[in-house]
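Quick check before the chapter quiz. The format below is the same one you will see on the exam, so make sure you can read both the input and the output lines.
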Amino acid sequence: KELLKLATLLYSAMRAEKKSKAGGEVDDDHDHHPPATLLTSIKEARSLAGEITDKGARLYDLLGQEAGVRKARIKALAFLDAISSNLDSTSDHKYIEKSIRELVANVGENTTALRKQCNDLEADEKALTAKIKKKQADLERGEKRLKSLQTVRPAFMDEYEKLERDLQEQYEIYMEKFRNLDYLEHELDQYNKAEREKLEVEEKRHDKISKDLMKEEMAVFLNGGQDGIDDVEVNQMMHNMGG
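Here is the expected output.
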């Protein structure tokens, strides 16, 4: 049957091609056919070409399945030949009747299973609908409760606001004292630094005075009240003593 369809399609395409050629010759000779006829012929040719391609691909797929369905087809044809040649035989009729009854029974079982599944789904749907309604009711009650709580002022809010103001005041006092303490610590550091610098200067001056006195005493001791020893010699002697 598939080959017959393909042959019919090819024959239709050949006839359409001949008609288009004949129409072209008439147009060349007499030039009285309108362009719309040519456009229609071209569209039909393209449509037929696409249909031929699709049918060819389908035929190729069917021929590829030939090896698998050949045995079943031969068996079915043999069975039909046996029935047609022996119409009075009851065994074949019983076999067909049995097969049909089995198919009907299978369909009935599938229908029963589908009905049961539909009933279960309906029951689940009803249960879920009831749960959704319950949750929606709970949600509405919760929203109403929230709105009522938002509009009511708690009893402890006055005390809370008072404590919050006190805390803000204490924080400002703390920050002021902290800034004062930081300033005083800075001033104390500057004072200690200045005192250390003064002490260092005083120590240097005291050392210089001590060295000068030692020089004078050493000069008096060495000279014995006589001239002849200069300051360079005194410094050298003091350096040796210090070493």
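If your answer matched, good. Residues 87 and 230 are 165 Å apart (CA to CA).
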